[in-house]
Amino acid sequence: MFRTAIKTTLKSLRPSLNVERASIRRASSLTKGHFASAKQLLFGSSILALTASAGYYTSQNYTDKVSCEAQSEAGRYMQESQKLEKRKKYEVLLPSEITSTSMSQRMGNYVKKLQYDIVSTLAAIDGKDFTISQYQRPGGGEGAVCVLQDGNVFEKAGVNISVMSNKLPKAAVKQMREKPMELQGDGPYPFFVASISLVLHPHNPMIPTVHMNYRYFEIQDEDGNPQAWWFGGGSDLTPCYLFEEDIVHFHSTMKEACRNHDPTFYPEFKKWCDRYFYLPHRSEARGVGGIFFDDLDTHHPEQIFKFIRECGDAFLPSYIPILLKRKEQPFTPKQKEWQQIRRGRYVEFNLVHDRGTKFGLRGPGPQIENILMSLPLTARWEYCHTPEVGSEEEKLLEVIKNPKNWVPLN
């Protein structure tokens, strides 16, 4: 009887074991250099998981299992990231004064530290340095623009921060929030903003483009007291080719950051992302989404600030494992052309629909090069381009025309 039970259990596990073996082969063939021991780690964790919780893998669907593996992958990255050499030149990005009390100062310090972490990590992976441009704004405040072009991994990568105060015209105020504000007077209004924004456009079409932005706004009265305040931001993924495990990994990491603060955040902000990053003239999403939120002032500011920090800190674990996994993957000229066409869609959204671009262009003393930093170095528009039936390109179009839930919402 015991022998029969063992045979029955092994038979039920066979599909799961086949998936595990495929995952091991895929991981070991794609993670070169940075994850030399990924095969052993994945094999060991897979066997442990199968022996300790076989019932989980046979009772849960594929998405749940991939989500579990995605979290393990983020943990492996965190171990490997400690080995990356961060050059001293990027320490100029760090805040000079870390002691602060006001929310504006604390958010300003946070975006500087996050910019340092991201830029130094990306430069260590790419092997080429970012160009750093730091500036002071005449009306008050500062900023730092970090751009890498024609690198070894990135065709163009930009990571910007802005910490500034000025007076804001009414036209710019209208672009700042999705819901209207009740403000005294006709403006211009004293305001403060601390924000970080990045867009990464890799060379390899197998690596998705990624966008991330987090910001804090205050609209002040003449005495400098806030009339209104709110947080906004999010992170979203724009692939040219679909690798489900990559997308599940990205969404799983974002979901975990949200779930630690409010169980309603991920389902609400995931749907918001699908609505916002949408091209109505194409009837398609810009990519496979992530999270997006604006006008967030419904919780205590300390709670939201903690949430923002966790989302910002989750960026590297959400994206770097994908980057390291795909950066050596071969591609064809035809696949590169498809990437250029998809980047054309990215340009269309940023120039026609993105509220952040409109706000930047209408704000005081616009820094045009910094505002348009998010655009790719190259793009392509073909007249009436249609992918081949059944192709990987057509599969992408099907997904972006019909957004799906990559991980369970709840």
UniProtKB/TrEMBL annotation:
The keyword Oxidoreductase applies. The keyword Translocase does not apply. PROSITE patterns: COPROGEN_OXIDASE. SUPFAM superfamilies: Coproporphyrinogen III oxidase (SSF102886). Its EC number is 1.3.3.3. Pathway: Porphyrin-containing compound metabolism; protoporphyrin-IX biosynthesis; protoporphyrinogen-IX from coproporphyrinogen-III (O2 route): step 1/1. Keywords: Oxidoreductase, Porphyrin biosynthesis. It comes from the Eukaryota. Coiled coil: none annotated. Homodimer. This is coproporphyrinogen oxidase. It comes from Basidiobolus ranarum.
